[in-house]
Amino acid sequence: MQMMRAPALVRLYRMDRERRRLLLRALLVLTAASAGVAALPFRVAIRFGAVPLKGRAARRPAECVKAIESVSRRLPWRTKCIEKGLAVQRLLRSSGVDALLHYGARHAENGMLEAHVWVSVDGETVIGGDEAPGFAELAQYP
Fold it and tell me: Residue ranges per domain, the chain?
């Protein structure tokens, strides 16, 4: 017999307060990052995550990444690496974690230029790392 999962709102209600708060922040930050990428010039939008560090590291990077990925799967629009990267970087930096956003590019097999964004903390990639090795890094944003 297969167990049925509780509906999303029931699971959200059962979560502890801090986890709910993180998911709500993830939703707001990811939505703002998506809007910024869609509406602003690249040079402005790419700085969305580069907020000043606040206090001591209060969150583990994996918590923020998991929250962004979870929210991303449930949004009615598709989020790409740039939106997720900006959102993760902003969540981490506003939690006191020194996260770097990396922007890279490569030539695709069809001759087109492809871009990719990934985020690292202390030299370890926390999101976007699977594709990152194939891209030449062009810029870093603190």
Answer: 15-141
Give the residue from 101, 72, 86 showing the smallest Cα distance to 36.
86
Cα 101-107-108 angle, rounded to 5 deg: 105
3-state SS assignment for residue 66: helix
Structure tokens at 12: 């959200």
| Phi then psi dihedrals of residue 105, to 5 deg | -145, 160
Q: What is the pLDDT of residues 92-133, one digit of tens each?
A: 999 999 999 999 999 988 989 999 999 999 999 999 999 899
How distant is the alpha carbon of residue 85 from its chain centre?
Answer: 4
Buried b (16+ CB within 10 A) or exposed e, 75-109: eeeebebbbbbbbbbbbbbbbebebbbbbbeeeee
Contact 97, 57 (CB under 8 A): yes
- Tell me the C-alpha distance between 68 and 100, whole Å: 16
Q: Record the pTM.
A: 0.87
Tell me the per-residue pLDDT of 47-72, one tens digit each, with 9 for 90 and over. Answer: 999 999 887 777 789 999 999 999 99
Residue 80 CA to residue 104 CA, distance in Å, equals: 14
